[in-house]
Amino acid sequence: MRxxxxxxxxxxxxxxxxxxxxxxxxxxxxxxxxxxxxxPVRLTGNGVDTPARLVEFGSTYADARPxxxxxxxxxxxxxxxxxxxxxxxxxPGDVLRGLEYGSGALVLLFGDVDGPxxxxxxxxxxxMGTPDAVPKASALIGDVTTYEFGVGTTVAQLxxxxxxxxxxxxxxxxxxxxTFRLTxxxxxxxxxxxxxxxxxxxxxxxxxxxxxx
Length: 213
Description:
There is one protein chain. With 213 residues, the protein is of the alpha+beta class. It is 18% helix and 36% strand. It contains three helices and 13 strands; from the N terminus they run αβββαββββββαββββ. It has helices spanning 2-20, 61-72, 155-162; strands spanning 42-44, 47-49, 54-56, 77-86, 89-101, 106-111, 119-125, 137-141, 145-149, 167-170, 179-183, 188-193, 202-208.
């Protein structure tokens, strides 16, 4: 009887050890690597630079929209096609379509500015909504330096980040506010300021074709 019990115990132990060998988890390999984060979206003087490609000014709405949806998510507001004289000002062309992100922190405008059909002609960062939910303006200064800025960036930060040669600050005259223009290697950015002192800040930043008041 004792020999029978001993045989059963040996068989059970062998089954347990063999089961350990079939563990599907390769413990030596460690945890699976996390996917690499996507490259950031950049608002450049030429358009919206996404991980997929640059959506440059002049791109058709039909071509640009899927790329923008992937990079920025669905807009918080889509105006549909409306008159170019709208809440965005007196804009070029007769028809525009506005896409807003971050509840208005970023506005992209499309219009019939290059003939029939809507093409991308402007982006603008506004002092409203949730600015942390949208990308910043991004200038290429020198050969490899990328400088990011936006609403709330101070004049001192603009001078330091862009350099005196790339930045032009113009004192305003009532009712025209002070403005700045930042020119990088291939394009330019425009915006208004609370003033021209080091601690004054940008009120908005845009690139592309502007709309009048």
